[in-house]
Amino acid sequence: MNNESNTTYDVFISYRRSGGFEMAKLVSDALCKRGFKVFLDVEALRSGAFNTQLYNIIDSAQNFILILSPDSLERCVNEGDWVREEILRARQKDKNIVPVMLRGFSFPAQMPPGLDGLQFYNGINPSPEYFDAAMDKLAKMLKSSQDSGAEKKSPAKVIKGVVLVNGKPVEDQIIHAEKSNVEIKTNSRSLTVLFPKEVLVTTNSGNITIYAESASIEIKSNSSNISIFGDGLSVSVLSNNCNLHIYGDYSNVTVQNNSSNLYILGLHTDVNLMAGKAAVYGDYGVVNAFDGAQAEVAGEYKEVNNL
Asked: What is the pTM of this model?
């Protein structure tokens, strides 16, 4: 966090871990692709006492995006609540606050102390069907430290790789799969896949982000960055040689070989590690480490077997 606090950002994203993390990451990726410098606190995951170094990061950013998932403001009645502290700081420093209201969210009839008027800020209500359009609108609502509010131009589309959806080639950087089968034969670009039924990654040397629910994901070879978000997932990894992060509850993860950074976070998530090392965090579930594989495990009621 020390290095982060010395960096200037265009956007700070505030979110509630429960119900808001997936959208926060999706919004962060979309804005980064549109040229904004975004801070999203992934590592801390809003646990423990409030980290006052975040004040410096909020102060450095002109824009404050607030992800509002269902019931996300309920705990803001408590002093010291992470989201409450971030909102109060942004209002104190007169930041450009833009709420992103998710499906199922509604403002409480009695707003928490210090948050009165938040419901009158201009914001957006993104939907999976029109997500790109929502992100374009969001980008226009943001201020930029580089051009004093002028609209950011999206980078030119660069096609690097072969991606199929239900057997048909696609060239989009954000793929709205909607319960379809996605095959990523080769990839060397930034790619986001939304809500697929199945994903097969044959070779990856770029950046892939996958958001899914009750999906099957197979990774044959990864030499760059893959992040997976969702619940009820079945993830199979043949070979990982770079950064692989999996966030999901009630999931099953099997790793044949890992020689780099593998991070798995989720409740009631079972992990089978055949070779290499992995960090596994979350309560409940079973972790099986085979033949010298090493699992760093943190969480309550977790069964760990060294086989």
From this structure: 0.56
